[in-house]
Specification:
This protein is an alpha/beta fold. The chain is built from 9 helices and 23 strands. About 25% of the residues lie in helices and about 20% in strands. The strands form 7 sheets. Strands 1, 2, 5, 6, 7, 8 and 23 form a 7-stranded mixed sheet that branches. Helix 1 crosses helix 9.
Length: about 450
């Protein structure tokens, strides 16, 4: 296990950097800061890899193949590189990383506020205060489920679950289930519930359709080799929209080439459009399902055409295209939840970060952190682990390495500049300038 301190402390600590969060992002930046000799601490509200440990369903596997499971200084070295890591194994991977790097983690230390005072930050926790020159927010993008307001209109006898609360079909009532959302989470849960023998209806809004394998290789091989996953945030035409895109319709399994609406329809799931409202126990769905699915098909084919240019150059198997998403001529527009025996609704409608403890004016009215590629709009504040933060791959485990190196470089330059300025605020008097070899 990593270095932990379980005894409460009342004494304030003064340190160069405080990292908030001991998931893969926080541990990665810690590894790089330690290599550069930067004094820092990691504050974790629960345990190492806490969200993966306590807020994921039992059968979940990573969307990325094992060969892509890597962090700075640690790569997957098992005997199944093309497999997909289950959550329990990922937790062990991250735990081993924390222990092997000697990460200075203080577990069960939750942050109650972050305040900027003069040129430094004060971090208040349930175990005392910290004063630091710089702070890294590594709490992730999935702190709170984005449950729509329509949830308040659902009849009280129907159970409602967010993915963070779902573990397995055994915890649900035996009746039907309405899964709201058609991204990776929504389709994976719908598939599992269908396998358990339940009647499932899927309310599908905007989604990203993608095959698991293409031209003889996993889709992530091509996304990596073609350079798509390496595209920088400042190269993306509409960065705000790019950061809001749902996760692709994939599952960590080699069983199916496609986990999509067609596959679930063939398993007798009912496919409806986006859930627009619930009135007197009747769910109301959008009539735009055909357009939404056509757009997803179009974007998938554009992606595959782009991959073809790379695949052709290495003499991969012939290009292929997939059946268009099938939509009924008269799609479902309303459903009486009681008549359909719907007893549970699963809100697979995405997540959002929770920055209520961040008392620095860097969050807009919609709750979005204001940052430029992870450099927050407050000197000495950084963020890691958000979608498309610096690259398209930022939200994946393997994507944190390059992002963390970039942030570490900027952070260390900031600390060096601050020491030289000899400001009136808190600073540490280091005799040697810190540096880091970012591409070592």
């Amino acid at each position: 296990m990593s270095n932990t301190h379980e005894k409460p402390v009342r004494l304030a600590g003064a340190i160069d950097v405080v990292v908030i969060g001991a998931g893969h992002a926080g541990l990665s930046i810690s590894y790089l800061l330690a290599k550069a000799g930067v004094d820092h601490v990691i504050l974790e509200r629960g345990e190492v890899a806490n969200s993966w440990r306590h807020e994921r369903w039992d059968s979940l596997r990573l969307l990325t193949p094992n060969w892509q499971t890597r962090l700075p200084g640690k790569h997957y070295d098992g005997d199944d590189p093309d497999g997909f890591m289950p959550v329990a194994e990922l937790v062990r991977f991250i735990e081993d990383y924390a222990a092997g790097t000697g990460a200075p983690v203080r577990t069960h230390t939750y942050v109650t506020s972050v305040i900027r005072e003069h040129t430094y930050y004060r971090i208040e926790t349930n175990r005392g205060s910290w004063v630091c020159n710089a702070v890294v927010l590594a709490t992730g993008a999935c702190n709170v489920a984005s449950v729509p307001r329509v949830a308040a209109d659902v009849p009280g006898h129907i159970a409602q679950l967010a993915p963070q609360d779902y573990r397995s079909p055994d915890q649900l009532d035996a009746g039907g289930v309405l899964v709201v959302g058609a991204s990776a989470t929504g389709l994976q849960l719908a598939d599992e519930l269908l396998r358990s023998g339940r009647h499932v209806t899927i309310a599908a809004g905007e989604h990203v359709r993608m095959p698991r394998t293409y031209r003889g290789r996993d889709i992530f091989h091509w996304l990596d080799r073609s350079g798509i996953h390496h595209e920088r945030y400042d190269e993306v035409e509409d960065i705000d929209r790019g950061r809001r895109l749902p996760s692709p319709q994939l599952v960590g399994s080699r069983e199916n080439t496609l986990l999509d609406l067609n596959y679930l329809r063939d398993r007798e799931a009912v496919i409806a459009g986006r859930l627009m409202g619930v009135r007197d126990g009747v769910a109301q769905f959008s009539g735009s399902l055909r357009n939404v699915c056509a757009l997803a098909d179009l974007k998938m084919n554009r992606l595959l055409a782009r991959i073809d240019a790379t695949a052709d150059a290495v003499d991969a198997p012939a290009p292929q295209r997939f059946e268009a998403t099938r939509v009924d001529d008269a799609p479902l527009l309303t459903m009486n939840l009681a008549a359909a025996d719907v007893r549970t609704i699963v809100w697979a409608t995405g997540f959002r970060p929770d920055y209520r403890w961040l008392q620095v004016p860097v969050v807009d009215r919609k709750g979005h952190l204001q940052h430029d590629g992870g450099i927050v709009a407050s000197p000495g504040m950084y963020v890691l682990g958000l979608p498309l933060m610096r690259r398209r791959k930022s939200s994946f485990i393997f994507g944190i390495e390059d992002d963390a190196r970039d942030i570490a470089e900027h952070l260390i330059h900031y600390l060096n500049s601050k020491t030289k300025e000899n400001s009136d605020g808190f600073h540490r008097h280091d005799t040697a300038e810190r540096s880091i070899r970012l591409r070592a």
